[in-house]
């Protein structure tokens, strides 16, 4: 497995287990032993070597062993370092089907709801797979402008895994619930990550980079439908898709440096989409630009009326379905062989490290403070008229 894919898979698994640490009260009641030490650390220590990524298959097999069917729905949970069968053999309490009570309890609390076709949800990300083989992934934090945090990134990883396991998958659509496509990273989450250890901070950057890489390398065609705000890392998602269509109300910006951060992990995808020249303008100025400018520079392929966005997406999907799926997959793979985003592992790791280090820099601390206090950062001297 390529190192980037292995890294992304590791952080998806880690994110899946992180949810269990939030169930400490359930864990204590179910086992009468109190909460175990860090599930995340146990996964790191027992399943994976995070530097070499040599045991990813072992980790995946273990996670798969933890999955059960409950009332016909696919559910997730975790048992520390034990599989259900190991847990049962240990003599701890199990239910009549042999699955641990803790596992069942967590599964019931994190149940994914099944609707028509195959529909799944992880709260901040939902997805649906229709009979034609068309999957729709929806970014689902409308109350926060669909800004992304660890939960959304983990949900995107899980969605791509679940959909990728569908043998008939032909196309993936990515949409945003509510008024906006994706209003960049959740700055509250970024500030929280910045206060964590260097290792956890690095983890967050690797998770973000892994999502971008995974989306970029999906074997089937991908289509982004953009409305409202599309900020920061959202532009990486757009650039990682094969086709991008914007509503005429869409607004874009690549303004990480305004907050003392950097957009390093999306630069390869942006270079594929808009070229280095346009990156050197918009990633350095942080200017907002509209859908027509996004079209001019190549970030999106079409601009349509907001009310026609879904119809325009359906039209592109119909074109994609008319083409042979294996021929499309081979064509996409060949194009990516010659892409800026086809970076070697050493470059990928350097981008991740730079991205993480920048978040814990003095400039980022000032950028976060200026955001909280709703004031210009100290490096802004003010307009020219104020300095004459």
Features:
388 residues, 2-enoyl-CoA Hydratase, Chain A, domain 1, seven-stranded mixed sheet, three-stranded mixed sheet, 16 helices, 49% helix
What low-confidence regions span 5 or more consecutive residues with pLDDT below 50?
18-56, 65-117
SSE pattern, N- to C-terminal:
HHHHEEHHEEEHEHHEEHEEHEHEHHHH
CATH superfamily of the largest domain: 2-enoyl-CoA Hydratase, Chain A, domain 1
- Specify the CATH class of the largest domain: Alpha Beta
Instruction: Indicate the proportion of strand residues.
Output: 5-15%
Number of helices: 16
Topology (SSEs and partners):
Blueprint: H1 3-21, H2 24-31, H3 39-47, H4 56-65, E1 68-70, E2 73-75, H5 84-89, H6 101-109, E3 118-121, E4 125-129, E5 134-139, H7 150-164, E6 171-176, H8 187-194, H9 198-216, E7 222-226, E8 229-231, H10 233-240, E9 243-247, E10 251-253, H11 267-285, E11 288-290, H12 291-297, E12 302-304, H13 309-321, H14 325-337, H15 345-359, H16 362-373
Parallel strand pairs: 5-6, 6-7, 7-9, 8-10, 9-12
Antiparallel strand pairs: 1-2, 3-4, 4-5, 10-11
Helix pairs in contact: 1-3, 1-4, 1-7, 1-9, 2-6, 7-9, 9-10, 9-15, 10-11
Please characterize this protein's 3D structure.
- This protein has 388 residues and is an alpha/beta fold.
- Helices cover 49% and strands 13% of the residues.
- The protein has 16 helices and 12 strands.
- The strands form 3 sheets. The chain has a 7-stranded mixed sheet, with helices on both faces.
- A hairpin with a 2-residue loop joins strand 1 (68-70) and strand 2.
- The protein is globular and about 60 Å long.
